[in-house]
């Protein structure tokens, strides 16, 4: 026995639980990668719902071939509403993505030029 408890009998202590029992701990699944998400049943169901809503046609050129679900924005990624998505054919999706990237790059380039002039 150690010096502090010399001569005294120590009462058995109750076990201390540092971690709450499993029933209390909220276990969340790790966030899937974007690629994994696109392969999920959840995404496939949303994708098909968007195609059906849009009449299985590209919203820009009315093509029925090579349809893809396009995110209008990424604010609700992994939890999109159907209204966050639209149907585009592969060609229009590529064209839109290329134009959007060019506009975004130009926007940030101009923003940085304005800062330097000040």
Alpha-beta classification: mainly alpha
Q: What about the largest sheet?
A: 2 strands, antiparallel
Give the termini distance in whole angstroms.
Answer: 75 Å
Radius of gyration: 28 Å
Mean pLDDT: 79
How would you describe this structure to a colleague?
The protein is mainly α. It has one domain (34-117): 3-Layer(aba) Sandwich (His-Me finger endonuclease fold). It is 39% helix and 8% strand. The chain contains three helices and two strands, in the order H-H-E-E-H. The chain has a two-stranded antiparallel sheet.
Question: Notable features of this structure?
Answer:
single chain; 118 residues; mainly alpha; His-Me finger endonuclease fold; two-stranded antiparallel ribbon; flat
Quick summary:
This protein has 118 residues and is mainly α. It contains three helices and two strands, in the order ααββα. It has a single domain, classed as His-Me finger endonuclease fold, CATH 3.40.1800.
List the helices and strands and how they pair.
Blueprint: H1 34-38, H2 41-53, E1 67-71, E2 85-89, H3 90-117
């Amino acid at each position: 026995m150690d010096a502090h408890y010399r001569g005294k009998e120590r009462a058995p202590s109750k076990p201390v639980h540092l971690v709450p029992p499993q029933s209390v701990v909220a276990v969340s699944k790790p966030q899937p990668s974007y690629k994994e998400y696109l392969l999920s049943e959840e995404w496939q169901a949303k994708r098909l719902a968007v195609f059906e809503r849009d009449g299985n046609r590209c919203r820009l050129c009315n093509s029925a071939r090579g349809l893809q679900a396009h995110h209008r924005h990424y604010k609700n990624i992994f939890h999109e509403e159907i209204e966050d998505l639209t149907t585009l054919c592969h060609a229009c999706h590529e064209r839109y993505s290329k134009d959007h990237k060019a506009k975004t790059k130009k926007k940030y380039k101009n923003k940085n030029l304005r800062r330097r002039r000040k």
